[in-house]
Amino acid sequence: MLLSQKKIVLAVTGSIAAYKSAYLVRLLVQHGAEVKVVLSPGALEFITPLTFSTLSRNPVYSDFTEDKNTGEWNHHVGLALWADLMVIAPASANTLSKMASGQSDNFLLATYMSARCPVMIAPAMDHDMFLHGGTQENLAKLKGFGHSLITPHTGELASGLVGQGRMAEPEEIVQCIVQHFHPDLPLQGKKVMVTAGPTYEKLDPVRFIGNYSSGKMGYALASALAEKGATVQLISGPVHLQLSHPSIHITKVESAREMLEACLLHFEEMDMAILSAAVADYRPAEMADQKIKKSEDSLQLDLVKNPDIAAQLGQLKRPHQHLIGFALETTKEKEYAQEKLIRKNLDLIVLNSLRHEGAGFGVDTNQISLIWPHNISQDFGLMDKHKVAAIIVDAAIDLLKKTT
Ligand code: CTP
C-alpha cells in the first residue's frame, strides 16, 4: 500500500468542506496511512470528533485539556513531531491568516506551529474571500514558508455563488499526498481503463450465454497499475472478486453492449485501456421475456455478433492514447495475434498460450508472450497472474513514456 507506515496529521478547520475530510480520512486509511485528526473550534460546528475517530481508528484532538478535573492534557508538540506530514484540509481563511502571522490560539494552530514535517494546505472558502488581497497575501507567505498549496476549484459554492474556493476533491488531495511520498511513481497522474471478466448474454430471465473467465487477470492488472500511481477505471463483467483500493473505480456490467457503453463513457479521458475481458463474440438475437419452456428434442438459438470493444476503441484512439489487448490462440499463435493487433489498432497484444497445463481460464497462472507491431515479441514462462500483471504494467509504462 502506497501510504503504509506514513503518519499523517489531518487538521480540519471551520468550513462546510469539513464533510469531505471524513472521506479523505477513509481514503488515507485505505492507502495504509496512520491518520490522527485535529479539529479547530470552528470545525466542531460542522462535524463531530466521533466521525473522525471512527474513520481514523485514533483519538481526535480539539483542545489542550482532555479532562479539566484531572488536568489531563493533549501534547501538541508530541503530536506534531509524530507526523511525517501535516495536511490542513479544509483550511479556512481565518486559519490561513493565523498560520501566516504565527498566532497560536487553539490546539490546531499550536500543533501546526510545532510541526517540523512538510505541510500541505487545501483551502476552502467563498470566492471573494479566496480572492481577497489578505488571503492571497497569506497564501503567498505560507508558500514562502515552504508549504505546498492544493489549489481550490471553481464551481458552485455553499453560498450559492459560482467561483473559485471549492476545496479540492479528497481523491485529488490523496494524489498530492502519494506524490509527496513517492515523487517517482511512473504512473502518477495517468488514467488507465481495464476491462475484466466475462460477459453474460441473456437468453431469457433465468439463463445466459457466458464463459469461464474469472476476471483474475484484469483485477490483478488494476491493482498493479494503482500501486504504480495510476487512477484506474475497472470495467468488470460478472465475477466473484472483490477489490477495494482508493485509486480504483469499479463499474460493474453484465453484457458486451453494457461493457462497450461503459468503455465509451470513460475512454476519452484515459491515457490507456487494457482490454483483458473475455467478451462474448455473439449474443442471442432476441431475449425471451418469459422463461423458455422445453418442448422439442432440440432447440435452435439465433445468435448475432456483439460489438468488438477493442476494435471500436482502436478507431477512437488519439495519438497520446494506448491500447493493450489480449489474444487467446490455439494455432499459429503469434501470427494470429499479430494480425489481431493490426486489425484492432492495438499498441501491444498479450498472447495467452493454452498449450501449457496451468495456463488459460480460471487458473492462477498464465504463460504469455508480448507482441508489438512489426513482429517484435518477447516470450515468458509459466507465471502467477500477479507476476504476469507486473510484466504487462512494465510494458504499459514503456508505452506511456513514449508519449511524454
Ligand atoms: N475483445 C473486445 N470485444 C470483443 C471481443 C474481443 O474488446 N467483442 C477484446 C478482448 O478483450 C481481447 C481482444 O479483443 O483484448 C482479443 O479478443 P479475441 O476474442 O481473442 O479476439 P477476436 O477478434 O474475437 O478473435 P477470434 O476470431 O479469435 O475470436
What does this protein look like?
The protein has two domains: 7-181, Rossmann fold; 191-401, 3-Layer(aba) Sandwich (Rossmann fold), CATH 3.40.50. The longest helix is centred in the C-terminal third of the chain and has 17 residues, at 385-401. Helix 1 (18-30) links the parallel strand 1 and strand 2 (34-39). It has 13 helices and 21 strands. It is elongated, with a radius of gyration of 26 Å. Strands 14-13-10-15-18-19-20-21 form an eight-stranded mixed β-sheet, sandwiched between helices. Strands 2-1-5-6-7 form a five-stranded parallel β-sheet, sandwiched between helices. A two-stranded antiparallel ribbon has the order 3-4. It is 33% helix and 26% strand. Helix 1 (18-30) crosses helix 8, helix 3 (76-82) crosses helix 5 (107-114) and helix 9 crosses helix 13. With 404 residues, it is of the alpha/beta class. Residues 195, 256, 275, 277, 279, 281, 306, 308-310, 325-328, 340 line the site of cytidine-5'-triphosphate.
Summary?
This protein has 404 residues and is α/β, with parallel strands linked by helices. It is 33% helix and 26% strand.
Biggest sheet strand order reads 14-13-10-15-18-19-20-21
CATH homologous superfamily name of the largest domain?
CoaB-like
Beta-strand content bin: 25-35%
Q: Give the oligomer, counting copies of the same chain as homo and different chains as hetero.
A: single chain
